[in-house]
């Protein structure tokens, strides 16, 4: 059944059938034309003459016709399908591009409707990825203005009874940011943007730099260390930066007052974030990632969601997030990229 | 310090103005680009807060036009969108800093103070970070009004840290700012200068303001921001 699906095999089968019917018809025609009875083929004295006739009038014409036809068919099929295999290779080797279309100019006329509908499908995927990202951006926009008003209204109240509410508003702000990021990653998974070469050390330094004042205000120290060469990776600056920041925020929550959060880069394409908390076991990390559950490691500020989003970011970059309970580290590993 | 807030959401603009007024800024609000043009024509401002989406035009477009016309005032862009491209467009267009909504009044005030401390800002020959002040023309630093005795190198180091207060100043930047090519910099010259400065500050009572971010640089805490 499977063989019948190949156009090449079906044509060869057809040619063999034509050859078989042709052989039988020609043998019959030649024998009746020359008045040779079938029994002559079994008679040793007459067999030579009959064989010569059959050779001249059956075998040679068949070989002369079938052989070139077979070769021509193989050649036609191969050249006709070459543009299709080329397009397939193009799709396979350039999977990370938006706006990709297959060039239909070289395609055989029979394949054009199919190629055209594939192109339409690619275009629809692009549009849907874009719409998803736009929608998330619009929602975030719509949510941020009321949040800004809420935060400033709370600021108007004298005294400290606004403080717990302020903390809630800033938790909501973080949630909006994380959800927006998640929507961007999902849109990217449907139809990825072209990744850029990134220096992980610089990204780590920038993340530490942007969070340092907050970390110090929360009574913890932050430090950065390098333990060897870090090769460039390919990815999306904002997503990976957000992943590193999520780990730092998580580590700050896990570390007691006066403790230090350390970000270590290398050796190899890895970033480790070390805290001074209790350490997170493999099972707990898996649980946090799987169900956004909060483990003991996290305080009630949506840490599970942060780690889960970081996990998604890492998967989108052919990397993974690991934990070392003994070293109290969460590790972003890009080495398989 | 007079600030112009350009924001089409009136409620948000008024609340922002109120929050900043409580933090000793003088604020005016403009609800459209046209009103902003009018306000800029009639008063001198020390900084602008600009929302990107305006009813009569795009904020990035507006600031580009004003910058081309010679507007030199520092601009803080405030927006509800957070993509990198928009940030880059805003900064290319002539904004000096970029904040994503919602931003708390304290953080907004700290960002504006940071903008005003940048070299070239028209206002304030005196830099202020918490109770620390620095007179940029006399090169004198004070803590709660009391003069701090500093060497010239410590003075430049403090000025650099105060201009960037609330942000990490990288070691390489300090090396560049403090030492010329002819100076031989020992590996721990910056550490030594920082610890001398820290000691001077602590002698005056300014404790726990100067923080070390190991492996990266130093941070002078802008306490009012926290």
In short:
Chain A has 337 residues and is α+β, with helices and mostly antiparallel strands. Chain A is 62% helix and 10% strand.
Structure report:
Chain A is built from 8 helices and 7 strands, in the order ααααβαββαββααββ. In chain A, helix 4 packs parallel to helix 8, helix 5 packs parallel to helix 6 and helix 6 packs antiparallel against helix 8. In chain A, the strands form 2 sheets. Chain A has a 5-stranded mixed β-sheet, covered by helices on one side. In chain A, strands 1-3 form a two-stranded antiparallel sheet. Chain A folds into 3 domains: 88 residues; 78 residues, Helix Hairpins (Orthogonal Bundle), CATH 1.10.287; 143 residues, Heat Shock Protein 90 (2-Layer Sandwich), CATH 3.30.565. Chain A is of the alpha+beta class and 337 residues long. Chain B has 226 residues and is an alpha/beta fold. Chain B contains 8 helices and 14 strands. Chain B has a 5-stranded parallel β-sheet, sandwiched between helices. In chain B, helix 6 packs across helix 8. Chain B starts with a strand and ends in a 6-residue tail after the last strand. In chain B, 41% of the residues are buried.
């Amino acid at each position: 059944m499977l063989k019948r699906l190949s156009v090449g095999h079906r044509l060869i089968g057809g040619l063999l059938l034509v050859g078989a019917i042709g052989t039988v018809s020609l043998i019959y025609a030649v024998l009746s034309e020359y008045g040779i009875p079938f029994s002559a083929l079994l008679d040793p004295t007459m067999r030579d003459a009959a064989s010569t006739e059959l050779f001249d009038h059956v075998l040679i014409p068949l070989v002369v016709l079938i052989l070139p036809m077979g070769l021509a068919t193989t050649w036609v099929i191969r050249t006709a399908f070459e543009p299709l295999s080329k397009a397939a290779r193009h799709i396979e080797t350039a999977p990370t591009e938006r706006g990709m279309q297959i060039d239909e100019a070289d395609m055989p006329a029979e394949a054009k409707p199919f190629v055209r509908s594939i192109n339409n499908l690619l275009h629809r995927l692009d549009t849907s990825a874009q719409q998803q990202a736009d929608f998330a951006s619009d929602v975030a926009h719509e949510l941020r203005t009321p949040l800004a008003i809420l935060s400033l209204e709370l600021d108007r109240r004298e005294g400290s009874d606004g403080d717990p509410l302020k903390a809630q508003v800033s938790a909501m702000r973080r949630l909006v940011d994380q959800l927006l990021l998640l929507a961007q990653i999902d849109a990217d998974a449907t139809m990825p943007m072209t990744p850029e070469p990134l220096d992980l050390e610089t990204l780590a330094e920038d993340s530490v730099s942007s969070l340092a004042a907050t970390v110090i205000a929360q009574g913890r120290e932050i430090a950065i260390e390098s333990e060897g060469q870090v090769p460039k990776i390919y990815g999306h600056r904002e997503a990976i930066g957000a992943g590193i920041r999520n780990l730092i925020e998580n580590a700050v929550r896990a570390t007691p007052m006066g403790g230090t959060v350390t970000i270590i880069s290398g050796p190899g394409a890895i970033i480790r974030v070390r805290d001074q908390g209790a350490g997170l076991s493999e099972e707990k990390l898996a649980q946090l990632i799987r169900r956004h559950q909060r483990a003991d490691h996290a305080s009630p500020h949506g840490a599970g969601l942060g780690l889960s989003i970081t996990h998604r970011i890492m998967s989108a970059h052919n990397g993974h997030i690991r934990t070392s309970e003994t070293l109290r580290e969460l590790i972003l590993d890009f080495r398989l990229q | 310090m007079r600030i112009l807030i350009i924001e089409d959401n009136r409620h948000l603009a008024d609340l922002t103005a109120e929050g900043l007024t409580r933090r000793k800024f003088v604020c005016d609000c403009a609800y459209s680009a046209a009103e902003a043009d009018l306000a800029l024509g009639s008063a001198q401002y020390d900084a602008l807060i600009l929302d990107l989406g305006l009813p009569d035009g795009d904020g990035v477009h507006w600031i580009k036009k004003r910058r081309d016309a010679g507007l030199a005032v520092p601009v803080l862009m405030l927006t509800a969108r957070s993509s990198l491209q928009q940030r880059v467009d805003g900064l290319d267009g002539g904004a000096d800093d970029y904040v994503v909504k919602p931003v708390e009044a304290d953080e907004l005030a700290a960002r504006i103070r940071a903008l005003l401390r940048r070299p070239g800002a028209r206002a304030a020959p005196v830099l202020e970070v918490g109770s620390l002040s620095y007179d940029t023309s006399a090169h004198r630093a004070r803590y709660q009004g009391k003069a701090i005795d500093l060497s010239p190198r410590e003075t430049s180091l403090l000025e650099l840290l105060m201009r960037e207060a609330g942000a990490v100043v990288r070691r390489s930047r300090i090396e560049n700012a403090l030492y010329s090519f002819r100076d031989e910099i020992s590996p721990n010259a910056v550490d030594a200068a920082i610890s001398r400065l820290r000691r001077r500050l602590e002698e005056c009572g300014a404790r726990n303001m100067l923080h070390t971010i190991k492996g990266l640089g130093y941070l002078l805490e802008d306490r009012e921001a926290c």
